Amino acid sequence: MINLRLLWTWDHCAQWTAARAGVHDWGASNEFSGNAEDFVREYSLLLRWCGQHGIDGVVVWGLLRDGHGGVEAAKRLCEVADAAGVKLLAGVGLNAYGGVYYEGASEWSLDQHLNKYPELYARRADGQRHIFQMPGNAPQPFRHACPSRPENMEYCLDGLRWLMETVPLAGVQVESGDTYVCECSLCRERRQNPISSQSWDDMAMFYGPAAEAVWSVRPGATVILETYSHPQPVADGTTPGFGGGSPPWAPECVAQFPRGAYVQWVADYFSAPRNPVPWTTRAPEGFAGNIMRAHLATWWMARGEEVAVDWLALLAQQSLAHGFDGLSIFGEKSPFRTGCELNYLALADYGSAANPEADLASFLTRVAAPLLGGPERAMEYLRLARCIAVPADLEGAMAQARRQAAQLSGRQADRWTWLAWYLSRWAYDAQG
Ligand SMILES: [Zn+2]
Q: For a tag on the chain, would you pick the N or C end, based on fewer CB atoms within 10 A?
């Protein structure tokens, strides 16, 4: 069974009002274009929808910012989440990604901490401060703290306790950083194993104390530990970065993770559509759970809002067969966009009591059909949506979507209209 279904978000991409200006399509560490009311409204819509449709939790990166109401806005969202029966989880970078308080004058903003104590910065191999400018839609550089400095560990744990004491969150998703790691002499001497853009030793060192800090305030809190990796072993001598397999030393590092937490893994390069290979490794046992996360239907690595219910079925099937009991996909956009709506509903359905085998046909027949005008139409919807990758078929697919919209009414018709419009973007671009 899938026991934990999560939607993962950056605040600046959250667009649950169908028509709202100034929102990013994708990216990390952008500005939030709006005020506290905008922030609370967008996430209230998201949380309530999740509560009504069987999604267990929402991860928010950028939860705490001065620009959208700071602690007070986050508290309001906790009330909405509680009323909806959904877990609100803060994304927290331990040595990067802004720390507990993503942006603002708070002492719990990692940037403020490093401004105050510049000697606590992480260092690159050349000795310079480790301030990383990520390529892509991520304008604010990531400032990193050295994980070997006890002052930084103490600051991180104090921050997590402050967070849990101040904001009544259901829990956190924590990350040790995957935008390269500190290479100061302390870190180099401490680590037992090679590094890439991430360090398994850093995860093993930080995740236990971080989880204990959270649980010291709220013993039942959900704590999710990011590995940035798939558990499939890598035996070619390389040390993969984000989305790669696990090097030989990964299991001994995972063995040091706190047992009451969920371990989160990355499926992108081990599943459809990118690389649908069979898995030979099971999820590690003894944890609260193991979550598979994928960048499906987001402009990260793929096409935003595309219909991905078939790929998600395959991912759920592989996950179920190998001992994973959680799934996480991006949840930034409104179900007004039918691709998102179907993906979220599939996330809620696969591995549930109604669909224990994560069967695609079952989902299309029971869940999608009433939304799209019947079972045959649901199957056709998926087939036509996939034509964005087949330029020669686009015109015909758009014409068929328009015909279906004309024969239906209300939201059923709207969903086919959305498909015709979605396909037309690719047809327009293909015409040059
Ligand atoms: Zn260091």
A: C
- Look at residue 10 and tell me whether its pLDDT is greater than 90: yes
Indicate the burial class of 280 (C-beta count within 10 angstroms; 0-12, 13-18, 19 or more).
exposed
Q: What is the DSSP string of 415-429?
A: HHHHHHHHHHHHHHH
Looking at the structure of the chain, the number of domains it has is 2
Is the pLDDT assigned to residue 135 strictly greater than 90?
no
Instruction: List the one residue out of 252, 268, 343 whose CA is nearest residue 301.
Output: 268
Distance 149 CA to ligand 1 centre (A): 7
Q: What is the pTM of this model?
A: 0.98
Domain ranges, residue 428: 373-432
What's the mean pLDDT when you consider all of the chain? 97
The pLDDT-based confidence of 430 (bands split at 50, 70, 90) is confident
Alpha helices in 109-223 (DSSP H): 110-116, 150-166, 185-190, 200-217
DSSP letter assigned to residue 17: S
How far does residue 119's CA lie from ligand 1's centre (Å)? 11
pLDDT at 56: 98
Asked if 379 and 259 sit in the same domain, the reply is no
Distance 189 CA to ligand 1 centre (A): 9
